[in-house]
């Protein structure tokens, strides 16, 4: 009976990683949503909450890494299982970064305080955040379901986020040109928009990692990413 | 004689990882240096060179990951050796990001084209880049030497970069307020300054990874990072 016994402990360890990643995903989503709500409502208390929550993701990432390394050392997994563990490490790193981006947006709430954000700008930021969060949510669902076709789809769908980011970028520049008093707050909003746009990149990274976990290779073809907007300013990394 | 033989092949594999990381470091440094030179001299050809070099780091990171995973699967390393391999994966990811930041700066050269960058702004950007590159170079030396005390020192020394970034941020806002025609190019320079500042963060990450590789734990104490500048706008992640 020993092999079964070992396998089931091993499964427990993999399940631990999967569960912790899902938890991290939930926390990251919450932080990003809250940070944008804090920003458009200048809600300092909510911003402070987001800032204080960052440590949850830092701790979770460290614990996932530790568990992953202990599991590798003890179980000496091969091929698919090893990829599963390495993938968990990568996804945890992406989710930790998503939390950092939420925290950075939250920190900027204090800097835009006192300058009211025009309604359509706020709506633009909210819309950008909705799309980025939807992408993050879908990719976390794919992590649970391991639907590889879906993972490829998400990877090919960053375009909408980029288009909205570009239009927000233009709009923010316009506000800055209209009145020099808008320059400082709009600069912070530019960075916030960039933070949100980068969440889409992390969702794409996670989709690639899930593809790799399932197949052992990277998705084919260049990652769809380009800047049709160099002249106006919304430039991808 | 077999154990010695196995150990020496294993050493070769670890050496391969160390060598490829050093190469990645060299490429990343070069790309960042070139991107800032391209920016301050509006040198489109050099910018294009940086953009085209990004694939070198992407490929190197993928190869390092593959080698690392094959090594783990074949050699089933314990403790220190496993940390060595996991550390290589993490450092490769940081260096790949540094290359992305250089590429992003290079992409913005086209956007600031036509607007001459005031001499003292250019000097500020160059100075920021020098400091960030020095930090990156030192951390890569520490990776080669494994001088742990030095790794801790680098981690505690991001402050100078932050101070220069903050002063550049203020200066850029001033230019934008002086003349609305400065707004678009200065916005790009803001993102370039942020890119360079983030290289310092990646150097700090690498220093932490080296510490972890040597000791199996994270350096103690909160990572020195804070924003005394929320009101002016230079905000850390």
TrEMBL record, chains A, B:
Superkingdom of the organism of origin: Bacteria
Compartments where found: Cytoplasm
Keywords: Cytoplasm, Phosphate transport, Transport
Residue ranges occupied by any PhoU domain in the UniProt entry: 21-109, 125-209
GO BP annotation list: intracellular phosphate ion homeostasis; negative regulation of phosphate metabolic process; phosphate ion transport
Any one annotated GO CC term: cytoplasm
Pfam families to which the protein is assigned, alphabetical: PhoU
InterPro entries assigned to the protein according to its UniProt record, in alphabetical order: PhoU (IPR028366), PhoU-like_sf (IPR038078), PhoU_dom (IPR026022)
Compositional bias of kind Basic and acidic residues: 220-229
Coarse class of the protein's main subcellular location: cytoplasm
Ranges where the record places region Disordered: 216-237
Subunit description: Homodimer.
Entry similarity comment: Belongs to the PhoU family.
Protein name as catalogued: Phosphate-specific transport system accessory protein PhoU
High-level lineage: Bacteria, Pseudomonadati, Pseudomonadota, Alphaproteobacteria, Hyphomicrobiales
């Amino acid at each position: 009976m020993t092999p079964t016994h070992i396998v089931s402990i091993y499964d427990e360890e993999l399940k631990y990683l999967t569960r912790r990643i899902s938890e991290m995903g939930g926390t990251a989503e919450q932080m990003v949503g809250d940070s944008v709500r804090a920003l458009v409502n200048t809600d300092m208390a909510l911003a402070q909450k987001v800032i204080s929550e960052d440590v949850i993701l830092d701790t979770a990432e460290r614990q996932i890494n530790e568990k992953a390394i202990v599991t590798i050392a003890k179980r000496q997994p091969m091929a698919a299982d090893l990829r599963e563990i390495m993938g968990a490490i990568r996804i945890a790193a992406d989710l930790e970064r998503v939390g950092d981006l939420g925290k950075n947006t939250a920190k900027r709430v204090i800097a835009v305080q006192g300058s009211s954000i025009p309604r359509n700008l706020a709506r633009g930021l909210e819309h950008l955040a909705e799309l980025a969060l939807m992408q993050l949510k879908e990719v976390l669902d794919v992590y649970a379901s391991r639907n590889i076709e879906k993972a490829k789809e998400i990877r090919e769908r960053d375009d909408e986020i980029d288009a909205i980011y570009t239009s927000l970028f233009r709009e923010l520049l316009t506000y800055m040109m209209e009145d020099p008093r808008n320059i400082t707050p709009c600069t912070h909003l530019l960075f916030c928009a960039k933070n949100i746009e980068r969440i889409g990149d992390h969702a794409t990274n996670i989709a690639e990692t899930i593809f790799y976990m399932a197949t052992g290779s990277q998705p084919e073809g260049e990652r769809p990413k380009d800047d049709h907007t160099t002249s106006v300013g919304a430039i991808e990394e």
